[in-house]
Automatic annotation (TrEMBL):
Its cofactor is pyridoxal 5'-phosphate. This is Aminotransferase class III-fold pyridoxal phosphate-dependent enzyme. Keywords: Aminotransferase, Pyridoxal phosphate, Transferase. GO terms for molecular function: pyridoxal phosphate binding; transaminase activity. It comes from Limobrevibacterium gyesilva. The keyword Transferase applies. PANTHER family: GLUTAMATE-1-SEMIALDEHYDE 2,1-AMINOMUTASE, GLUTAMATE-1-SEMIALDEHYDE 2,1-AMINOMUTASE 1, CHLOROPLASTIC-RELATED. The keyword Transferase applies. InterPro entries: Aminotrans_3, PyrdxlP-dep_Trfase, PyrdxlP-dep_Trfase_major, PyrdxlP-dep_Trfase_small. It comes from the Bacteria.
Length: 420
């Protein structure tokens, strides 16, 4: 309560802005994830890895737009690409020269995506991938994982949701026996299994290799389409998490940074499945979408993959994340506090518990109050992270920024030790 009061006192312009926004949007909000109590701050601008709010505070951006902002704010190569596209008109109502180049780049990065199609968001990509599996198998059920997140209408955490009305059954993340039994029992009706190979918003919990191998083997045995949602995890190596793990899904969905920070989504995979969308084939599946090939995204995406998030840049950013995570865990251990940092590469999450985190149930044991305090304390010290404790690195962050985050966490562990 004390931290929230101090927060309110420090952010009068954001408070007024929030109150005014409630007149036109429910709770002043159009992206649920951005709301937090007592009110979210409003940003005025960003540059590189820095953000400024409308009360004039400066932050180091350790959220990176929930993984979409890998280039940082106003990266010159992305700006150039967007300006170049704008110079020739925005929505052309026909094919443009950017889209096949961008598709070929995506295909090169993610070889399991033998053919690819673009959408406007990760949510839409997942909608299309699941629909593809249903159309191609003639089956109706979709196995999802509790605490998986695949977009606004694919949210499987506890609480109210407005999910797309597919026929869901549930597996347990990293529970081989229970999930395999669920798949076997429903095999004849199961069109797809969809999962994030590391839960992102669900707390940066990695899927274990034997679990993924079981999923690969069992789905292959029954002709079930295995979909990897790599909307977030595609940043974890030049070829996504599937390249690191050596597991090839039937379909992959992408989003976030690959569009250079513009609205983006893509789905693709096995040529025999994706060929169903070939408009020249009899009974071709339809997939229109006014903005699927919008030139701003196509052009920014080409720049993102060729000039910004090159394979070298991907490896360096993920190494920076590994180093940061081990330093933060070392702080927690040195102070003997109930705090740990999970994740992989450039994606991290804090959990206020000593229990090792292998599943969403383990993560639920974390102390939500001290995690809130972590957010407010870090923010006060000038670090912008997700309210739920997720941290995501972007390319303009410097070693000095990383040091200052470690210092802020050290200060938190010291000053709040009695609560942890
Ligand atoms: N899938 C995952 C794993 C995500 O984290 C997200 C967004 O956070 C989505 C899908 C949805 O993407 P979008 O917000 O672009 O619809």
């Amino acid at each position: 309560d004390e931290a929230k009061q101090a927060y309110t006192d420090r952010n009068p312009a954001s408070l007024a802005h929030h109150q005014a926004a409630t007149g036109a949007m429910p709770g002043g909000n159009t992206r649920t994830v951005l709301y937090y109590d007592p009110f979210p701050i409003t940003f005025a601008r960003g540059a590189g890895a820095r953000l400024w709010d409308i009360d004039g505070h400066e932050y180091v951006d350790f959220l990176g737009e929930f993984t979409a902002g890998i280039a940082g704010h106003s990266h010159p190569a992305i700006r150039r690409a967007v300006e170049k596209a704008m110079d020739s008109g925005i929505s052309l109502g026909g094919h443009n020269t950017f889209e096949p180049r961008f598709a070929a780049l995506v295909q090169q990065r993610f070889p399991s995506m033998e053919l690819v199609r673009f959408t406007n968001s990760g949510t839409e990509a997942n909608m299309l991938a699941i629909s593809t599996a249903i159309a191609c198998t003639g089956r109706k059920k979709v196995l999802v994982f509790r605490n998986g997140y695949h977009g606004a209408v694919f949210m499987f955490s506890p609480g109210a949701n407005i999910n797309a009305p597919f026929d869901y059954i549930y597996g347990s993340y990293n529970d081989i026996a229970a999930t395999q039994a669920e798949i076997e029992a429903n095999a004849a009706d199961l069109a797809a299994v969809i999962l994030e190979p590391m839960l992102g918003g669900g707390g940066c919990i990695s899927a274990e290799l034997p679990f993924l191998q079981m999923l690969r083997d069992t789905t292959a045995k029954h002709g079930i389409v295995l979909i990897f949602d790599e909307v977030m995890t595609s940043r974890l190596s030049p070829g996504g998490l599937q390249a690191v793990l050596g597991i090839t899904p039937d379909l992959t969905t992408l989003g976030k940074y690959i569009g250079g920070g513009m609205s983006f989504g893509a789905f693709g995979g096995r040529a025999d499945l994706m060929a169903r969308f070939d408009p020249r084939s009899p009974n071709a599946l339809p997939h229109a979408g006014t903005f699927n090939n919008n030139v701003l995204t196509m052009s920014a995406g080409i720049a993102a993959l060729t000039e910004v998030y090159t394979p070298e840049a991907a490896n360096a950013l993920n190494a920076m994340g590994e180093d940061l995570r081990s330093r933060l865990n070392a702080v927690a251990e040195r102070h003997g506090v109930a705090m740990q940092f999970t994740g992989r590469g450039s994606m991290l999450a804090v959990h206020m518990t000593r229990t090792p985190i292998r599943s969403p149930a383990d993560a639920a044991k974390g102390n939500a109050k001290t995690r809130d305090l972590f957010f407010f304390d870090l923010q006060k010290a000038g670090n912008w992270i997700a309210r739920r404790g997720m941290m995501v690195l972007s390319l303009p962050l410097t070693p000095a920024d990383i040091d200052s985050l470690v210092d802020a966490v050290e200060e938190f562990a010291t000053s709040r030790a009695h609560l942890l």
